[in-house]
Design goal:
43% strand; five-stranded antiparallel sheet; 21% helix; alpha+beta; 100 residues
Length: 100
């Protein structure tokens, strides 16, 4: 049986980047942020922050933050797609490359 590493190596077009987002409602100084900010960060420490838009859905806000981070670092290309959802600590997205 192949290991996970061997399976990923056998699919050369498979690339992914994990992005986590969460809503910041308190500043570093303990002051309330209204309506708040959304912070997106990758596993290697890249960050991107956007204002929370109360007129958008929670999912749309978090997706916008994740897309902003992906665009900032050039990860979001035509063959790439963000797939994500809610987790206990916020939201998680994976940037997946679909090669045709």
């Amino acid at each position: 049986m192949a290991t996970e590493k061997e399976l990923l190596a056998s699919i050369p077009s498979c690339k992914y980047e994990a992005i986590f987002t969460r809503r910041e409602v308190v500043s570093a100084f303990g002051e309330p942020l209204s309506p708040g900010l959304l912070s997106a960060c990758s596993g290697d420490g890249h960050r991107f922050t956007v204002p929370y838009d109360p007129d958008e859905s929670e999912e749309a806000n978090h997706t916008r933050a994740a897309e902003g981070l992906a665009q900032k670092y050039g990860w979001l290309q035509p063959d790439f797609r963000l797939i994500g959802g809610r987790i206990p600590q916020g939201w998680a997205f994976v940037l997946v490359h679909f090669a045709m």
